[in-house]
Amino acid sequence: MKKLMIGIVLLLVIAIGGLAVALMTVDVDQFRPRIEASLSNALGRPVSIGKMTLSLRELAFTADAIEIGDDPAFAKLPFVKADQLAVQVAPWPLISKRELQITHLILEQPVIRLVQGRKAAWNFASLTPGETPPESNSPALRIDSLRINDGQVTIAFADGSQSTLSDLDITADNMSMERAFPLKVSGAGPGGARVKIDALVGPILTANMSNSPFSAELTLDGFDLASGLSGGGLAGTLAYRGKLNASAGKIDLDGNATLDALRLFPDAAVAPAPVRFVHRTRYDLNSQRGQISNGEFSLGAAVLALAGQLDNRGKQLRVDLSIDGKALAVDEVQGLLPMLGIVMPENSRLQGGQLNLDLDARGALDAMVISGPVKLENSRLNGFSLGGKLAGVMTLAGLNAPANTEIKSASTLLRVDPDGVKLDEILAIITDIGQVTGAGTLDAKQNLDFALRIAPDAALASSGEGSGTGSIALALQGALGKSNRDGIGLKVTGTADDPKFKLETRAVAGAVLSGLLAGKSGDGAADATIDKDALQEKAADAVFKGLFGKKKKSEPAKETDDGGN
Q1: d(CA 411, CA 478)
Q2: 422 closest CA partner among 388, 386, 372, 387
Q3: 74 and 117 in contact (C-beta within 8 Å)?
Q4: Distance of CA 548 to CAs 381, 537, 562, 565, Å?
């Protein structure tokens, strides 16, 4: 038995040795023209391969280099270039019949160039079998398995921009032109992202490869928006999961994204919690346009509906989207405000109430303009008292300044872009103060520039329940009541964290004068015998003293800080 085992081992050694000797007698470089011809015919592109040698350890031919030419309509540079090519073949047909049956084709560290033409066509779309059949001594190409190790793909878009995928590993098994086969891709994308694609490709359409059926599960992790979309204020880290189906140049993509530390504009605050986005998108490769439907943008429990158009014909993806939010709980959407560049005064926070918005987002993805009507109802700005900022004039009128800012309703036309925030057609009803109207801006550095008018609550101003005494206080109470028609001018400057309020004191003085004159005449008509200039001086001095505890200068400022702010 022992001798039998030894004999079997010796036979195996002899067989292996004989196989090795037989393979060594084969001039593998003779197959190079045949492999080049087969690859060229299969791809419809010129293929050149360096000198080939045999690796007994892997039973593979190796070549110093391989180069696949590009479509002449796109570029003169190679479509694929690699420093090393390995071709694993079935050994017995090679020895017995000198037939070449490729089992694995392996490219080491190739550089692949994908180029987009002016009409949205890609250079890989013309990868089709040649019009002439291979020579009789050039076997028809059949590759069971393709491997690309540590490759790099450079994508050149029609607008001149480029993107690069590196550390690329690609595996394709059971390859065939006539039936679908599995394809796996992994690598590093722009912005530090890790990309993974698990796909099923085919059957391959030889007329235009880009129209071939393709289905895939996509995974993207760690994509840095700031570096991946350079030139804008968009920032954050993106993770994405999606399912893609493509056929005849049309792509359907269903997916969900999670964005951490999302920032929409330069100098805007980041989202306090992860932002999630789910969508269904249909995209046309030929027109480079798409449509988003059934989109939802959520931060915590707040959900905004999103839909619209995509346009990828320029250097940056452009969007035309509608963003709709109905009866949103203010406590849930609090984090959206700093993302839009809107910051509350220091140590203050909105509490309670509902927010409704109907916004449009248009422009390049890294420089969007968001605009539309916004309305807030039944909310409170805790930690900030607008009445406190107007305490001087309210005290002079015998009115108590409310501790908080109670907002019955507030509406505006909002516009947010990389330069800042603009609010037009402001209309707010503030409890115990009245109606506030006007417009203003908040720039990217959080500087305020607002021109407002306050029409005080008529019932409050005329109630007479305040603690003020004397003709000036009574006149101011009456003037406040009358100012419902015109309002008192208010200038807001400073920063969002520390706003500064300036009342038009001459206008207040004029209102007081009107009250005094009406009081003098008894029936509300001014007496022509009264020295109006002297009364206006007296009124302005009284207002200035009431507000600041000192007499005004001989030339009073048109606008003066209220309450020392």
Answers
A1: 28
A2: 372
A3: yes
A4: 26, 16, 8, 11
pLDDT (tens, 9 = 90+) of the chain, 565 residues, equals 555 455 444 444 444 444 444 444 456 677 788 778 878 887 888 999 888 887 665 567 788 889 999 888 887 889 999 988 888 777 666 656 656 677 888 899 999 998 887 776 788 887 776 555 545 444 445 677 889 999 999 988 877 778 888 999 999 988 877 889 999 999 998 878 899 999 999 888 877 787 889 999 999 999 988 776 655 567 889 999 999 999 988 999 999 999 998 887 776 777 888 889 999 999 998 888 999 988 998 887 788 899 999 998 877 789 999 999 888 888 888 777 777 666 677 778 888 899 999 999 999 877 889 999 999 999 988 888 777 776 665 555 555 666 678 899 999 999 988 888 899 999 999 887 788 899 999 888 889 999 998 887 655 554 544 444 444 444 445 555 555 456 778 889 998 778 888 877 665 665 555 554 554 444 444 444 445 455 455 555 555 554 444 444 555 544 445 544 4
Per-domain boundaries in the chain: 29-178, 385-561
DSSP 290-357: EEEEEEEEEETTEEEEEEEEEE-SSSS-EEEEEEEEEEEEHHHHTTHHHHTT--PPTT-EEESSEEEE
Distance of CA 487 to the CA centre of its chain: 42
Instruction: Indicate the burial class of 149 (C-beta count within 10 angstroms; 0-12, 13-18, 19 or more).
Output: middle
Half-sphere exposure (CA, 13 Å, Cβ side) for 499? 25
Q: Which of 525, 402, 409, 397 is nearest to 472 (CA)?
A: 397
CA dist 430 and 411 (Å) reads 12
**Angle of helix 532-548 versus helix 470-482 axis, rounded to 10:** 100
Specify the residue for token string 């007329």.
207
Whether 79 contacts 69, CB under 8 Å: yes
